[in-house]
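Pair request: fold both.
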Amino acid sequence: MLSLIKTSTSSLTITDSHRLLREKQISPTELVSLYIEQIEKVEPEVRAWVRVEKEQAMERAKKLEDTMHQLDELPPLFAIPYAAKDIIYTKGMPTEGGSKVNKGFVPDRDAKVIQTLCDSGAILLGKTTTTEFANWGGPPETRNPWNLNHTPGGSSSGSAAAVAARMALMSLGTQTAGSLSRPAAYNGLTVLKATYGRVSKTGVIPASWSLDHVGAFTRTVEDTVLVYNEISGPDPEDPCTWTLPKQVLHTQEKRDYTIGVVINEYFQATDSEIRRSVEDAIKQFEGMGFKITYLDMPKSLEAANAAQHIVMKSETAHYHTDEFIKDASRFGVYLQEFIREGLQIKANDYLKAQRIRTLFRQEMSEMFNEVDLLLTPATPTPAPEGILATGSPAFNLPFTNAGVPTLTIPVGYTKTKNLPMGIQLIAAPMEEQKLIDAGYLFQKETDWHLKTPEIV
């Protein structure tokens, strides 16, 4: 089949791949082979993977191929090759979380999100790198495909790099502060961090259970919708999950939204090139018919940021306490200190932090009485040079803290090093559809999301 078309992973999206499969211009085994070949080509330089299960992926592709004729209609993610961050349980496949503590651990069950993707026909290629237990320390050796001397961000380092380097059509990651939004911006990708509770966390090693979000890196908003509609929804094992309608790509364009550009000093400390790209994006939205206004963040922002750190340290420490007491030396130096600090936080301080978060969520919700969406830079700078740190999550943290949905999309590339730059759009809780409407229209009018790293 593959000989009938000219294609490569550099140009494919999930939407493209689904069409090719549906039209029988490519088979599941041929599609998986394309991505295995791409992994073999660029992985030695990018180092995005913990493990690649080539034989397992090809066996699954062959089984799906044998059943295709029985289906009246192919599911949207049928035979789509994907990756998963190595804190997400995969039955029969190690889930080590980038830590010696979990060395050799093989779950006896899949995470809910993995099982859902399996049921949809998606094909897991393997596991991708993460900072230790998705925390803020111990970055892996993963490189940014746009410039190998720069970080891809974290903690979902490998998940973002794998998609940016076209080694997978999509990949699962998580966010506790900025670990979806920041790597997406650094790697020229699209990611939806949904409302807290829209995607199940069952079977995902927690960094901080009241802050954690699961999401997926893709190239386009159109692809994001396909993935999000599969992985979101209720889970009896995760009481935080919600039952809500699926999202759609509106054929009748939605241009009547008011976008509030955040002018708080917090978001003014940005690199000059990012600032110009954000300003250009604002003009683009305005030119498309969106109403633009300007507003400030809630006064409780600083206190809420401090509260987030208290909550995250406390919940991280609680989860790892038993293993930490057994042998603290198995944890990385950074995480050791993080856990020690978390263990010293008093219950009263933790509860006070959660009350501050509640107040901040309320104040954030009130902002959407004036606007439909907020807009900020996705990061203060492009991806920093070096791989010893994963960059600042400062611009993402408040919206993760509040549990509101955000959509990160690319809006340009730096002139000297060709590093991606992104914006994040923010909506009220459960208003993912507004993000999709605005982001989809923006990507119909621009081509930043279609750019490809030279390494590909």
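--- second member of the pair ---
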Amino acid sequence: MPKVPSFSPVLKNLTYIYEENLNKETEFGGSNFGGYPTLKQRDDSYDIRESMSVHCGFVKGTKPDHETGFDIDNSDLLQMEQCHGVVVASAIFGAFDNMLQPKNISKYSEQTVCLYMFVDEETKSDLETEHGLSDGKKIGLWRIVVAHNLPYANGRRNGKIPKFLLHRLFPNARFSLWIDGKLQLLVDPYQILERLLWRKNATFAISRHYIRFDVFEEAEANKAARKYDNASIDFQVDFYKKEGLTPYSEAKLPITSGRVEDT
């Protein structure tokens, strides 16, 4: 592991915006969990500065404690704060996916990498019936963390919370690797980090979708699979079009895809 992470501006003072009594019909998008930022506030949040205030989940608290919209037991939070190196995380909500154990993991990784699976109470019940749950809250290599009082009725939306906010769930970790619930980790985490981040001195890596390279094709596939309400998908696609997004083609090279995989 590199002694010093790749260069990034240092954020020293961070606060979270919680606004009550909003006229939500006039706000663009958002939710009670993530707040209702305007497009300007959203754009400003990408410009890292020493002091910032952002809409970024857990808006009723600075960490995923109680009554924040993604509640986690204190014993789990304490363990998560002890993760200082690499965290590998995944999530299954609504018992939608089968839990897949990582393979080809070195003994060193088993001892030093934090592997966490976030679930809801329904999924936990199914896992206990199928696999049993050890005293250490582990099934195989995964440590199971149950999230309570979830903000969305849709399990896919709840799954986006740990995916996008790992930096707040694991505030002391230096590197994180997200694995979608339907996927299986088949390579040692350190090999992935070395190849995609450390070798290139990069701060972020994301994989292309293995089938579709176009956002608009993905939207139609989501409709066919009934993943979300069609009207909400159309609303989002219309927004992308107004912002200037066009269908993917080779004319956009060296950009090789307009659509990424959930890792």
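Observation on the second member. Strands lie at 13-16, 51-54, 71-72, 86-92, 113-119, 138-139, 142-148, 175-178.
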